Amino acid sequence: MMYKKKTVHALLFMLSVCLVLSACSSSSNGSEEKPGKGKEEGGLKPYEITLAFWGDNQRDLGLVEEAVSKITKEKINATIKLKRIEPAAWTQQKVLMFSGNDKLDIIFTGENQYISEVAQKKLIPMDDLLQTAGQGIVAAFDPDVLAASKIGGKTYGIPSIRDFASYPTMLFRKDMLEQNNIDVSGVKTLEEMEPIYKKMKAARPELSLIGKASGGASIAYPLLLTTIDPLSDMIGVLTDTSKLNVVNLYESDEYAKFVSTLHEWYKAGYIPKDIATTSQTGRDYMKANIGFSTPNKGKPGITTQTGNAVGTELTEVKLAPAKMNTLTITNAMLAIATTSKDPERAMMFLNLLYTDKEIVNLLHWGIEGKHYKVNENGTIDFADGVDASNSGYNLRQGWMFGNQLLAYPWKTDSPDIWKKMDEFNRGAEKSAALGFMYNPEPVKTELAAIENVIQQYAMGLETGTLDPAENLPKFNNALKKAGIEKVIAEKQKQLDEWAASK
After folding, report:
1. I need a surface site. Which of 87, 135, 204, 206 has the fewest CB within 10 A?
2. Tens digit of pLDDT for each residue in 302-327?
């Protein structure tokens, strides 16, 4: 079902966030808890900082580790241990790292894991450390963005600087548009795309014209997510992000319009008949040369980056302006573990991740001349004799490590991609609820029942498979019986209290 992955996260969130307030009130700053950082005469004692993250195996990770350590040894008298975990094992290994005796200083976190780890007192509050050893981080942020990760008024995680906002977009294969003389430049709404699909269906009836953004999501999901403020779990949202008015998404005009349009497209044959059950995505269809379009979360560079991934040039149709909310900021962060023996030194390294271009590029791209080369226009490409198949370091997770805006752009991106990203972030509409996180403990019974209802109806409606005229009223009646109105009232109460305390 569509929300399988997202709702598992939501349930974990619900189970853990109730502990947050007690965790926040009882935790103390890590610099106070770990006084043993020590100094030798004339400077800091040597220290090894362990950074844990998930990612695919990189043959030359050790070489990158040595290169980063050479810099940090000089600047903060510390070496760096890069602790890479296989993506599939990440969640389980994090639990083991926290509960065992593993050496751990800095760890990647975000979304429900962040809330849970704060509640379980696995992460230290960093506000004092930011003032003493993290001023470069503070200077790099819009204050509202940095504050959005606060829990109980304290900072436990630092967002990576990347795309802090998103907009709903549809990506189309440019070659197919040109071959059929289709111009999408004037298209502004989902409904205006119908003539495009009608023409393509007539010209290429064998194509899967519309695919899903991911195997576990629906067609509508990324478009809905970037149009509203989901307020963490999409069970009670802001459809108007300028007002603190929590509503039932599934009873909104916006939702009805989305699912009605998709159902008409499904009946017309634009959407594959097995869309609700297949794990195939729009990107998969494009790679196989049988796909035409896919929904996506939009940002600067999305067409070139996705086009590079699927092997063909893409064009996009933006459906709404960019918006920023708590989730778009907190989904990728770095935090200091309570197991760190020297939180201040960990903060010094975090500060370098947001200010030192050489370190950022090492973690992002590897070693210049060995893994990449710099082009005349300031973009980069694989080093001579190197490609994706034989590179010893091709991690491509720069969004994970500090300030991505300090990294070189890849050759398929615009040389000024990061300038555009900064402008994009600064120009995005901020949700009125930016920084709000709610405690679902008072309605946990209702939320479990609501989850079951969502799994029953959402995927079918949001892929066009189910007729909304018949099934949307059933969906909302079932949600009401499960207690969604009580959940919305509780979330509204907490949101009002949060707003009053600002």
Report:
1. 206
2. 999 999 889 999 999 999 999 999 99
Instruction: Tell me how far apart the alpha carbons of residues 280 and 230 are, in angstroms, rounded to a whole number.
Output: 25
pLDDT tens digit sequence for 400-411 = 999 999 999 999
For residue 13, the model assigns a pLDDT of 39
E strands present in 438-493? none
- Specify whether the CB–CB gap between 21 and 439 falls below 8 A: yes
Of residues 73 and 103, which shows the higher confidence score?
73
Residue 116 has pLDDT above 70, yes or no: yes
Q: Which residue has the higher pLDDT, 499 or 99?
A: 499
Nearest CA-CA partner of 78 in 349, 471, 450: 349
Q: What is the chain's percent helix, strand, coil content, to nearest 5?
A: 45, 15, 40
The model carries a pTM of: 0.85
Q: What are the Cα distances from residue 235, in Å, to 137, 238, 242, 253, 480? A: 34, 10, 18, 16, 12
Query: Residues with Cβ < 8 Å from 8, sequence gap 6 or more?
Result: none
Q: Are strands 47-54 and 106-109 parallel, antiparallel or unpaired?
A: parallel
Tokens of 338: 């309570």
Query: Do 302 and 170 form a contact (C-beta atoms < 8 A)?
Result: no
CA 304 – CA 238 distance, rounded (Å): 31
- Using the predicted structure, report yes or no on whether residue 1 has a pLDDT greater than 90: no
Sign of the CA dihedral running 145, 151, 155, 158: negative
pLDDT band at 37 (very low <50, low <70, confident <90, very high): very low
pLDDT at res. 437: 84
Structure tokens given for 157: 């995680």
Cα 221 from Cα 250, distance rounded (Å):
12
pLDDT of residue 12: 38
What radius of gyration, in Å, describes the C-alpha atoms of the chain? 24
DSSP string, 170-187: EEEEHHHHHHTT---TT-
What pLDDT does residue 5 have?
Answer: 39
**What is the CA 358 to chain-centroid distance, rounded?**
25
Nearest to 97 by CA among 381, 335, 401: 335
Helix (H, G, I), strand (E, B) or coil at 90: helix
The Cα–Cα gap between 365 and 377 comes to 17
Alpha helices, DSSP H, located in 103-211: 111-119, 127-133, 135-140, 143-147, 174-179, 194-203
DSSP-derived letter for residue 372 is E
Strands, E assignment, 46-166: 47-54, 78-85, 106-109, 150-151, 154-155, 158-159
Angle at 108 between CA 103 and CA 111, to 5 degrees: 135
User: How confident is the model at residue 484, as a pLDDT?
Assistant: 97
